[in-house]
Amino acid sequence: MTAYARAALFALPLLVLAAPALDARPRKPARPAAAAPVRAALAGPWLYRGSDVPQDREWVFGELPNGLRYAVRRNGVPPGQVAIRIRVDAGSLNESESERGFAHFLEHLVFRQSKYLGDGEAIPAWQRLGATFGSDTNAETTPTGTTFKIDLPEATDAGLDESMKYLSGMVAAPTLSDQNIRSDLPIVLAEMRERGGAAARAQDVLREALYAGQPLATRAPIGTEASLTAARQDAVRAFHARWYRPENTVVVLAGDRDPAELAALVKKWFSGWTGQGPRVPAPSFGDPVAPADALRPAGAGPAGETPIGAARVAVEPDLPRSITWATLRPWRQVNDTVVYNQGLMMDQVAQAVINRRLEARARAGGSYLVAQVNQQDVSRSADVTFVAITPLTDDWQTAVKDVRAVIADAQASAPSPEEIAREIAEMDVAFASQVEQRALLPGARLADDITTAVDIRETVANPEAVLAIFRRTVPLITPEAVLEHTRALFAGAVTRAVMITPRQDATDANLRAALAAPVVADGTARLSAKAVSFAELPPIGEPGKVSADVQTGIGGIEQVEFANGVKALIWPSADEPGRVTVKVRFGAGYRAFASGDAPYIALGETALVGSGVGPLGQEELDRISTGRKMGFDFKIDDADFTFSADTRSADLADQLYLFAAKLAMPRWDAAPVLRARAAARLQYDGLATSPQGVLSRDLKFLQHNRDPRYRTPTPQELDAATPEGFRQVWAPVLAAGPVEVQVFGDIDRAATVAALGRTFGALPPREPAPAVAASTQAQVPDGGGAPVVIAHRGDANQAAALVSWPTGGGTAGLRTSRQLEILTNLFTNRLLDRMREKMGASYAPQVVSSWPVDLDSGGSITALAQLQPGDVPMFFQTADEIAADLVANPPTADELARVTEPLKQQISRAATSSAFFMYQLEGATGDPGRFAALRSILTDYTVTTPAAMQALAAQFLRKNRSWRVAIVPQGQGLVGNGSATGGGTGMMGRTGR
Predict the structure, then answer these.
(1) Per-residue pLDDT reduced to its tens digit, 102-132
(2) Are 612 and 620 in contact (CB under 8 A)?
(3) Residue 251 β-bridge partners
(4) Where do runs of H (alpha helix) occur along 573-624?
(5) Mean pLDDT over residues 30-42, rounded?
(6) pLDDT tens-place string over residues 801-853
(7) Secretion signal: which residues (predicted)?
């Protein structure tokens, strides 16, 4: 039941290398094969046969005589759009040894040329229909399937019919010529190269070791260079004929149309498709099996009596140490019944209890930074319980021992009723929120639910059914039941382990022995039952009075000002039931810091919220929000700071309290700062292992003309940072500068104003933001010079390059910034055509425009690509040629339409959500010009002329104004440029660190 699966999925921490990102979905650990029957062929819609899960009646299911299945439904989110999904049950696990990578290669080739589309015509065809390449038009290949995705905005009768025609020809009759193969091969190899490196090697080790003996171990969707290079049309056509058949295909449409119309389109374009030859059964994906020499763990442990198979240690010098062990069971298809889903829910409670205890130990300063348990079904190959750890130090044995001790305690004795109640409350509010917001579910997500259900061989259920099943399950979630499910999570056929380590200080035998060693259950991480209530918290201050209240003239948005100077924008909207979004914008952003504050800026992004408010530390913050829909995101921008959260009307007042309390009574707990420091230190070296990592480390610094506040701090600088220093930097930041609050969504106007008065209106008058030492204008690098060359320590075939042209900033230039978005999209299409489609030199080159509204300068147009080192000069030349041509010649009318139509559709869709208006009006209480600018946004982004674009290019895209960066492998230098690797000044003088 995919609605439950999505809501309950745990996300793994950033630094933990856990299970390979295949097509894993959370499911109940499979019982022995005899107790896990294959779905019976009972009457009813094809997706629900063998299931008693309540059918989602808004879906209309059908089957064509040729065996193709379809599902269609009406959905008006966003208005006018139709989401199309075509899923073929053919992924990398369907490949033979000589066909490795063919499923993914075929995904590319069907876009190249097919029955109704000539060579390279697919992307332009959908752009003319308003669909943006990469977001509205895309595809994905996993080990178990290939899915083609089109989100067609403003789907006219003709546009929808054309799209179904194109897709039918792509799936049933692609050209697949040797010429097509030669054209797409460099693109696929570029994708392989750009996704390679240390992190990819670590994932490969995990897959090969954990699924040893099964096809999944050697069937990564990307394939191998040897098999792809050897591909010829006969072999690719044979793979297509074998697996691309109507019986293996599901077509899904969800959108603003009568389901009967959608079903008629499926029949019109897919009824004539017939498979070639007899249907071939899917190959066996195998079962995990313990080897003959498996170890038996001594005493109680996280694997129980599960035998311990192979353990593997792999060295990656620049990656943080990570340990993953997995208890594997055979995957078996099951009847997706209510009882089955109740078991899933109890499994989720069992995992949540363990993970909360593991987190409590980490927060208290344990031996590991993060640790987590996560059960998944992986690619219909294994039912797996993963344990993933990032040790804090080189003493990984203690980290493994500590995590095993927490898990052993969970296996030894049942959790307390209070622990269970806490997790039930969290799950209940998640499911209830889905019910409240059901009307907001976009058609694209609903269509994806069906393809996911087909992939995992389960059903879909509407949010009401999921909530009802959960609430029927709650009485069954007893301590004894959770204990039983906990033990089942760690029982299986075999346990295998992998450690990624920066140095060879461990062996396979060491790791295996650590998992087999005796372990003593540790119950000290069990959480106390002490409740925390908002009623017990101190008030922010005397409730503030409203000093001004005006309508903005934008929809129902109202501006309220309190006597203390805090200003709020509120918009009660019945169009988004159950959803409330809060943003608090305050202070001066990066401008508030001194030049030496970079370590504390970086730590603040992850530790400021966790350091607490008033009497609430991080644990109390978690506890007080139990069973509530609340959040606390934090962001630092050039000119402001932002707190944000998605909440609901019932929790809004308390959400506002937490945000206001952070400004009024910040707490300065040391533990979150020390933990954030450890995480940043562990992560730093890994940034040098790829061009992408170097860009994430250095680009912001370079864009701001090497302003030291934007520098990624080194481990040495982090080591020198202290909790007291953190407080000294952040306390004045929280205390000064204007405050703007936005509350948009399903709210009661009077209750919201009253809650604002008790929280932000009760703050003492704010001190002005400290004067900015230099000009508030952002500094940009000088143009016209030689490229800055930075070294990375990753693979020798990886490089990246960028060219950036300074533009501007500020509200007065908003129309210019919007017209620049059109120019940027023209540039993107040409760069994609040259660098990807024609040269195959880069998988995903892109051009982006930025325009800081709060500053008078600092904007840019930046062209960026990942490449082979020898292609960097060619990228610079190509970018310069495209820029020069845009300056010299106006674009054609068709070229312009392929840009402006998708932009028009993007804005029209986005404007159906209050989030769009919230984003556009950030800062409007201090800069009323933003209200006026909002009224012209659609025209500014979509109405232009070829001559206007040429003039804009002439203004900004001059070569002598641009600056450029090359990121190349250490020791290679920049071919044809004369610059030495690591050249430049300051930070850039180091070899990629």
Answers:
(1) 999 999 999 999 999 999 999 999 999 999 9
(2) yes
(3) 70, 86
(4) 598-607, 618-624
(5) 40
(6) 999 999 999 999 999 999 999 999 999 999 999 999 999 999 999 999 999 99
(7) 1-18
DSSP designation for 573: -
Number of Cβ within 10 Å of residue 6's Cβ equals: 16
The tokens for 265 are 């389109």
Structure-model confidence comparison of residues 991 and 879, the more confident one: 879
Q: Dihedral of the CA atoms 966, 971, 977, 979 (nearest 10)? A: 90
Question: Read out DSSP for 38-106?
Answer: PPP--SS-GGGTT--SPP-TT-EEEE-TTS-EEEEEE--SSTT-EEEEEEES--GGG--GGGTTHHHHH
Q: How far apart are CA 741 and CA 557, in angstroms?
A: 13
Distance CA 327, CA 343 (A): 19
In terms of pTM, does the model score above 0.90? yes
Question: Percent of the chain beyond pLDDT 90?
Answer: 88
Using DSSP, state whether 879 is helix, strand or coil: helix
Strand-pair category, 494-501 with 308-315: parallel
Candidates 33, 16, 92; CA nearest to 386 is: 16
Give the span between the Cα atoms of 13 and 390, in whole angstroms.
Answer: 9
Alpha-carbon distance values, 247 to 275, 281, 841 (Å): 8, 11, 37
Phi, psi angle pair for 184, to nearest 5°: -90, -20
In the predicted structure, residue 34 carries a pLDDT above the cut 60:
no
Which positions ≥6 away from 573 have C-beta within 8 Å? 556, 744, 745, 746, 747, 914
Contact present, 801 and 876 (Cβ < 8 Å)? yes
Alpha helices in 366-478 (DSSP H): 396-412, 417-436, 443-456, 463-473
Tell me, what amino acid is at 835?
Answer: M
Prior bond to 732 cis, omega within 30?
no
The answer to whether residues 150 and 163 touch, using CB atoms and an 8 Å cutoff, is yes
Centre a 10 Å sphere on the Cβ of residue 307 and count the other Cβ atoms it contains. Answer: 19
Over the range 75-95, which residues count as b (16 or more CB within 10 Å of their CB) and which as e? bebbebbbbbbbbbbbbbbbb
Instruction: Flag whether pLDDT at 397 surpasses 80.
Output: yes
Q: Which residue has the tokens 């994906």?
A: 285
Distance, in Å, from the CA atom of 481 to the CA atom of 473, rounded to the nearest integer, reads 11
CB half-sphere exposure, 403, CA atoms < 13 A: 27
Tokens of 215: 């096809």
**Given the structure tokens 């670590």, which residue do they identify?**
202
Read off the amino acid at residue 112: R
Q: What is the 8-class DSSP label of residue 211?
A: T
- Quick check: helix, strand or coil at residue 258? coil
